[in-house]
Amino acid sequence: MKILVGLKRVVDYTVRVQVKPDGSGVAIDGVKMSINPFDEIALEEALRLREAGKATEVIVVSIGQQSSMQQIDTGLAMGANRGILVKTEKPIQALTAARVFAKLVEKEQPGLVILGKQAIDDDASQTGQMLAALLDLPQATFASKVEVDGQVARVTREVDAGLETIEVDLPAVITTDLRLNTPRFIKLPDIMKAKSKPRETLELASLGVEAGDHLSVTHYAPPPKRQKGVMVKDVPELVAALKAKGLL
Q: Is 34 helix (H, G, I), strand (E, B) or coil?
């Protein structure tokens, strides 16, 4: 069984994001870029399933500019078998990404597609669900535990009432939550081995997908600065201050 995993290139989660002075976007020049943390968890889960004998091949996919090959290289160093870069210079929104993955699923015929539940740059949390809808596949989102038994995947999800366990027939789409696992540390020998692993570059147009996004971002703005706190002596003074601000 093949497992297809998506890796999105995002600003590293440790970096303090800065908005460009003209409000046209986020400043990324000279900024550390990494694999979206949820996608890294998705890859780790795919590798564990392969190591448990549930899969034979893990394929990592990234959509974006040539620079996204860096994230594919990282995925190969983690242990993926091969990588595919779908190259485009345009920003990609969730529906277009889902259409790209749909074409790759038709081409590769994986038994499982594992994606991060969301990307930390747009927090859309839509690609996995849209992909399942496009291909009419079962889906199990926000997974905190995954077990594969033959042609069935048993997935535990965290919901408002506690834990929910569902079973889906394979092939299926799974999206991962933070509590699913802890991604492995990449060692130098793994980086060296990754250099000989196969990589493929496809142009977005060659898949018959257009980057015809329906949403456009008109302006970016940083969140307002936090106001200085006010010290109060006792509860009555706190209540009075809240009433003065119209909060009570």
A: strand
